[in-house]
Amino acid sequence: MKILSCYTECHTPGCDWARLPQELLLHIFQYLPLLDRAYASQVCRGWNQAFHMPELWRCFEFELNQPASSYLKATHPDLIKQIIKRHSNHLQYVSFKVDSSTESAEAACDILSQLVNCSLKTLGLISTARPSFMEVPKSHFISALTVVFVNSKSLSSLKIDDTPVDDPSLKVLVANNSDTLKLLKMSSCPHVSPAGILCVADQCHGLRELALNYHLLSDELLLALSSEKHVHLEHLRIDVVSENPGQHFHTIKKSSWDAMVRHSPKFNLVMYFFLYEEEFGPFFNDEIPVTHLYFGRSVSKEVLGRVGLHCPRLVELVVCANGLRPLDEELIRIAKHCTQLSAIGLGECEVSCSAFVEFVKMCGRRLSQLSIMEEVLIPDHKYSLDEIHWEVSKHLGRVWFPDMMPTW
Amino acid sequence: KNLPIIIFNINVWALGALWGLRMVVNTIHWFRKGLRLHDNAALRDSIRGSDSLRCIYILDPWFAGSSNVGINRWRFLLQCLEDLDASLRKLNSRLFVIRGQPTDVFPRLFKEWQINRLSYEYDSEPFGKERDAAIQKLASEAGVELMVRISHTLYNLDKIIELNQGQPPLTYKRFQGLINHMEAVELPTETITADVIRTCLTPISDDHDDKYGVPSLEELGFETEGLTTAVWPGGETEALMRLERHLERKAWVANFERPRMNANSLLASPTGLSPYLRFGCLSCRLFYFKLTDLYKKVKKNSTPPLSLYGQLLWREFFYTTATNNPCFDKMDGNPVCVQIPWDRNREALAKWAEGRTGFPWIDAIMTQLRQEGWIHHLARHAVACFLTRGDLWISWEEGMKVFEELLLDADWSVNAGSWMWLSCSSFFQQFFRCYCPVGFGRRTDPNGDFIRRYLPILRTYPAKYIYDPWNAPEDVQKAAKCIIGLHYPKPMVNHAEASRINIERMKQIYQQLSSYRGLVFNMLSSPAAPCPLPHFKIFIHFSVTTSCPILSVTVSLR
User: Fold this and answer.
1) Is 0.90 topped by the overall pTM?
2) Nearest to A298 among B421, B429, B439 (CB)
3) CA atoms of B228 and B293, how far apart (whole Å)
4) Which residue positions does UniProt flag as site: Electron transfer via tryptophanyl radical (chain B) (predicted)?
5) pLDDT at residue A140 is higher than 70
C-alpha cells in the first residue's frame, strides 16, 4: 500500500525523486548490484543517506585478488576502508573470497582483525584457487580469526576449510559461541586434532552441520554428536584424503554409526574419497550409513561390491574411475540393496549395455540423475549404443542420453 | 540526377551488344581454407563464363612472425599450397601466393589484373566474417562481382540457428535434434578438371616462381635444421588418399561403432583426417557422402545413425555455436562461458606446455603434440583436464593458445569450443569426471610404450613405475639411470590434493550459478539471509555445500 501511494505521488507532476521514502529506496537499492548502488548514491544527499542504511550492509563479500594471480577484479580498497569505518557494526553475514596469492589472504586477515565492532552471524573464508590461507603465518591468521570469535558471540555458520585454524582457536570459538553455532565447515585444517573437534561437539549442542577430514573423525566424536543434549545432526561431510600411498586409516565402530542413525535418523552422511586403490582396506567392511558417496580416484570392483552390501542408505554415488573390467555385478547389487539410490555418475568405467539396462530397470523412476559417459557403455549382443537410450528412457520415464565428449 | 549516367551506361552496353562485343571476365579465386580442387563450389561456379582465372593465397607477413602458429602448422600449410600449385599446373594454371594484407592486396590486384569477379569459400568464423565484409565493400566499390559459396561446413549454419529461434544450440543433443530437421546435405560439387576449366586461361609470367611462388619454411624465418619428416603431410592429394584408406579400413572391419581405445590409438594414424578437414584439403561433404555410401553398402541399405558422422557433427556443432560470437575464445564477455576464478601462473603453464610437469603421461602427450602436431582426443581430454579443472586450475584460454600453436587440426571455433567443454566452462558439462594423470594413462597403455617412445629418458623404467616414477624405490631409479628430481622432474602437484581442492572450487561456482536460475535447494540450517542480492546467496549454500554433493547440482537446460 505504501509503495502504491508512493507510485501515485511520483506520477503527479512536480514530484521530487530525491524525496522518495527511505523504505522504498531501500527496497529498490537491494536489487541493485553494489556498483550501481554506488553510482546511485552520488545522485543526491537523500540517495546517499539511503546507500548507507544499515540494512544494506548486513551482508558483504570481500573479493581479494591480485592482478598477477587472478583474472577477476577485487573489491576496491577505498570501499573496504569505508565499510570498516562506517559499517563494521552493521555487518552480520561476511565472506572473503581470495585468490592463490598470499597477499590476498593476508589482506583478508587484516580486515578480519579490524572487525572488532562486529557481531557476525556468518563468516566464510573461501579460497577460489589454491589454498592461500595456508601460506599466511599461522599466528597472524589465528589472531585475526580470534578477533571475530571473541567479538561475535553469536556465530551461527563458520566456513574455514583449508585454513591453519588450530585447537586453541577452536576453544575460543566454543567459549564464545557454543549456544549459537549451527554449521562448521573445516575440511583440510591440518592443525586441528581429534581432541579439538571433540571439544566443539561436546559444547556446541546446536551443531547441525559439520564438515571435516577423516583423521578428525573418532568414535567419541560420533557419540558426542548423538548425545541426548545434542540436536539432530543434519549433515556430516567427511573427506578421506591420502597424503602418501599406502597410508593407514583407522576404523570407526559400527556401534558409533548406529548411535548416530538412532539419534538423527534423517542425517546425510557425505563422504569424499581421494585414496589409492590399495588404501580402502579399512572401509566398507561393515554397514555404514553413508548417503552420498564420491570416489575421486580409481576404486576397485571389490570395493564397489562391498559398497553394494554395506550402504543401505545410499542416495548418490559418483565413481570417477574404475578400470577396464565391467562393473555389471556390482551395479546390479547396488540397485538391489541401495533402495534409496536416486543419483549415479560413472566416469572412466565399463558396464555392458545389458547389465546397465537391468540396473536402470531395477532402480526405475527413482533415478533422477543418471550421468554416464558414452564410453562407459559396452555394446553387446542385446543392445547397441543407439538402441540403449530408448530402453533406458523407457524405464526412467523420461528421455535420457549418455553424456558425450567431443571427438575431434 | 543520375539519369544521364544510366543512359550513358545502357548505351555502352547496347553498343557492345550490337557489335558482338562482350565484357571480358577476369576472375580471382581466393583460397583461405578450402585448399582443394574437389567440391569447391565457389571456384567451380566462378570459372563459368570466365576468360581468365587466377587462384591466389594471401600470406599475411605479419602473421608469420608474430602469430601463435608453430612450425608444424606452417609446414602443413605450405605443403597444402605446394599440392594445390602442382594440381593447378596439370590444368595449365598456377597458384599465386601474395604477401600482404587482404585490404591492401585486393585494390592493387583488382586494378593490375582488371578483375571483375572474385570468388571464395564462405568463412563462418566471426573474424572471417569481419574480414570478408571489408573485402565485400572493396569489391563493390571496384565493381567486382562476388561469388561466395558454403563448402567448409555440411550445412548453412545460419539456417541451423534460425531453426533454433535465432539462438545457437548449447548442447550437442539439441544440435543433433536440429540436424534431424534440416534439409539433406548438398552433394559435393564436381572436381575442377581440364573439362571444367575449358577455355579459361591463367596468364603465367616467366618470373612467376619469384613473384608468386610458394615460400619455404626458411623464407618465412623458421629454423629447419634437425626437423624430422612430417608425420602428417599436408595437401589435397594426401587427404584423398587417406580418405580411401580410412574407408577401406572401415569396410574391412564392417564395424561403424566407435573404436575401442587401446595403446595403438594414441599413435598417429595413416587414416587420420582431422588436419585435412581443418585446412579444407578434404571436403567434409565428400567425407559425409562416402561414409553414407559405405554404410549403406555394408549394412544393406539401412539408414545410417547420426553417430556415424560423429567427428563431422562435433565440428559442425562448434562452428555453429561460434559463428555469431566474437568473444567465443574468451571467458570475459562471453555469454556462453561460466566465469571461473582461474589461477594465473606463468611458470606452471610453461611446465605444462613444455612437457615438464613430472607426470610422464601428461609430458609424453605434450611432447607428441609438439613434435608431430596431433594427439588422440582422449589424450586431449587428459591434458586439458590436468591444466584446468583437474590439477593446475589454470584458464582454458591459455591451453587453447598452446593448442592453437601446436595442433594441426585446431581451428578457432573447434579449439575454443572444445577447451570450454573440457574445462567445464560451458555446454552444461558434468564436472565430477576428473582424469587421473597416472591412472588414466596406465589403464590405456599398461605397458607404457607410449611414454617410452616420447620420453626416452624414462625408457628403461619398468611398467610398474613408469606412470609414477617418483614412487619407484631408489635402486629402481638408479638402474633406470634416471633419478627423479635430477634427470626428470618431480611431479609438480599432488594430484589427490589438487583434485580435491578443485572439485570443491567447481562446486562453489556451479552452486552459485544454480542459485541465479532460481532452483530450489534443500535449505537446511542456513541463517535467514535478509538480503536478496545474488552474490549474498553464498550464505544460503553453506549448508548445501556440505550436504549437496556433486551430482545434485543441476543447471536447467535451454
Assistant:
1) no
2) B439
3) 37
4) 342, 396, 419
5) yes
